[in-house]
Amino acid sequence: MQKIYVADVVGDEYERWYYHKNKVFLDAPMGMGKTRFITDVLFDFILRKRNINIHHNDKLLILCNRRMLGLQYWWEMIEKRCSYHELKDVVEIKSYQEIAASIRGSGNVDELLQEYSCVVCDEVHYFYADSDFNCYGTFAVMHALLRAGICKMMIFMSATGDEIFPILEKALKKQFKSVKNVFPDLNEEYRKIVLQNLQSYRNFDYVHPYLLKDDKELIYKVGHSSEKWLIFIDCKERGKQLLENIRKNGKTADIIHADNLDKDSRLVSQLVMNGQLDKEVLITTSVLDNGVSLKDPLLRNIVIMTDSPVSFVQMLGRIRVGEQDIVNLYLIKREASEFKKRAEASKKLLDKFEKALEQFSSVKAFDILCKVFDDPWSEEAEDYRKIYTLTPEGVDFIPAEYSRTRLGNNFLVTKRVELYINELAMEKTGDAFKMQSLLYKRAMSSPEEVAYEQISWIGKTRADLIICSEDYLKKNEEQLINELESFGMKTADEVGDFKKHLVSDFPDVVSRYVKINKGTFSKNQLVKLCECLGFKIINETVNGKIRYTISRRSNI
After folding, report:
1. Mean pLDDT across the chain, nearest whole number?
2. Rg over CA atoms, the chain
3. Is residue 355 classed as helix, strand or coil in its secondary structure?
């Protein structure tokens, strides 16, 4: 079946979006060419318009949530057959963090997007996913962009938009309502929200899920594999321990996290420009959960440790595959106590959000800020950075409906500021508490139930999960032995297909005895596998052609 891309489905519809200044939600699975649609279709369209009339305000702004995603756009753009100055005139790539800094500096939203005719907000789930990471938050940035883009074409893109698209739609409608006095004659087309939902093309058939007992079993599997591994960890210290043990087993490995992301330029460049790992194993935190497409033919194994369905899908989507490829997904058993601890922490923070809402009318912004600045590393300061979001005084880009959470304004360091309840972070915390509670409930039944829940996020059933226990391996080895006993007589080509079949159906057993490479193994490795299991491979000439058979040693 021919692969379908975003550009194929959208066709010329983007031209109508552009002329009518529509607000477009592009909800498309990973690997469907969202980035290429922007760089190869939308960019070329705006470049043509610019060349026809250079005085028109035709310019594209691409906003990213990760520096690596911005770099990926840049490396795509330099392939264009145009000069640097043409690129500069037609497109600009910025991060959401840069937009936040602009608002913090001036608070002037009117000038924020003035020079652009089209704004692409990529990985837009950033507004939700990163909403609790800093005191300025994504709440104000989201509303500033929506207000500034009222009269622009805006495209909001994500492969995991279940949480953020309803939030964006609600926020947009509030913006449309709040600007009636500012833009009384606002074209109705500018208010049109176009939902381009392509999730029906999502397909995880290439994923084979496995459940491992613990980190020791993971280290063993990595050590006996000839393929590459991508390991997403939920704790930096756990990642460092894995790195040490994997290297002790003779594997080359790297680790990447927020602290070294900007320091290891070699590793980042290799990932962004070539989409390949230069080591056998890469261990990473969520800093790599989006913005990088890995197209390494030897990368066929991924380990994911996360409680978030959004992060789970994003992490899995880092590996881009061809039509015949498979990816082995490994989960690790976790005890109920781990989920209980996380759920309790989320509930504690959620209660603080609700208390802040109840007390908003009596709380002074200056008191909150002083507590954060006086003791920035305290638990209270950490909570405040999640609960409240900071904006310059007098901003008008947050609709009036949110004024009930405004805490007032006070003089601080030559500037007046206002605080709002960070409603995006509050929603994220509530969702996290619900999911952690569900996983705790599943784990109380058995650790396997957690894995069943997680693979359901990608449409897999209980029957799809392979539990890598000793009993499972013993049963699989017995089945593999049956395959060897029923081998019959085969040609060289048929032997090649047989080896691929063994790797596909019995990867854990085969990898215990031989080195797997690109979904198969050599003839010498087949000889070794047979010997380890008490068989011998024989070749003989039949009617002038070489044929192969497999027999037990006792039968020879």
Report:
1. 86
2. 27
3. helix
Task: Kindly give the residue spans of alpha helices, DSSP state H, lying in 252-361.
Answer: 265-269, 309-316, 336-358
pLDDT digits (tens, 9 = 90+) for 500-532: 999 888 887 887 788 787 788 898 999 999 999
Please tell me the number of Cα atoms within 13 Å of 87 on its side-chain side: 15
Measured between alpha carbons, how far is 165 from 198 in angstroms, rounded to an integer?
14
pLDDT in tens, 481-502: 999 999 999 999 999 999 999 9
The model's pLDDT over 410-447, given as tens digits with 9 standing for 90+, comes to 434 445 567 788 888 999 999 999 999 999 999 999 98
For residues 136 and 354, give the distance between their C-alpha atoms in angstroms, rounded to a whole number.
19
- DSSP string covering 58-91: --EEEEESSHHHHHHHHHHHTTSSS-HHHHHHHE
Euclidean distance between the first and final Cα of the chain, in Å?
Answer: 46
Going by C-alpha positions, the residue among 59, 66, 68 that lies closest to residue 87 is: 59
* SS3 label, residue 525: helix
The Cα-based distances of 389 to 46, 197, 369, 432, 509 in angstroms read 36, 31, 11, 19, 53
Q: Are 195 and 25 in contact (CB under 8 A)?
A: yes
User: Quick count: other Cβ atoms within 10 Å of Cβ 121?
Assistant: 25
Answer yes or no: are the C-beta atoms of 210 and 508 closer than 8 Å.
Answer: yes
Give the separation between CA 556 and CA 541, rounded to whole angstroms. Answer: 17
Over residues 82-101, the pLDDT tens digits come to 888 888 889 999 999 888 88
Which tokens hold the place of 33? Answer: 């060419």
Q: Classify the phi-psi angles of 517: left when phi > 0, otherwise alpha if psi is within -120 to 50, otherwise beta.
A: beta
Whole-number Å distance between alpha carbons of 467 and 474: 12
User: Across the chain, how many H-helices and E-strands are there?
Assistant: 23, 19
**Tokens of residue 387, six digits:** 């609960």
Report the C-alpha gap between 21 and 187 in whole angstroms.
9
SS3 state of residue 197: strand
The strands making up 545-552's β-sheet, listed across from edge to edge, are 489-490, 545-552, 535-542
Domains of the chain, CATH where assigned: 6-200 (3.40.50.300), 207-332 (3.40.50.300), 338-430 (no CATH), 470-555 (3.90.1150)
Contact assessment for residue 548 and residue 496, using Cβ atoms and an 8 Å cutoff: no
More confident position, 81 or 327: 327
What are 346's two structure tokens?
């989320």
Of the two residues 457 and 249, the one the predictor is more confident about is 457
By C-alpha distance, which of 276, 267, 270, 272 is closest to 73?
272
In this structure, the number of other CB atoms found within 10 A of the CB of residue 115 comes to 10
Contact status, residue 294 vs residue 276, Cβ threshold 8 Å: yes
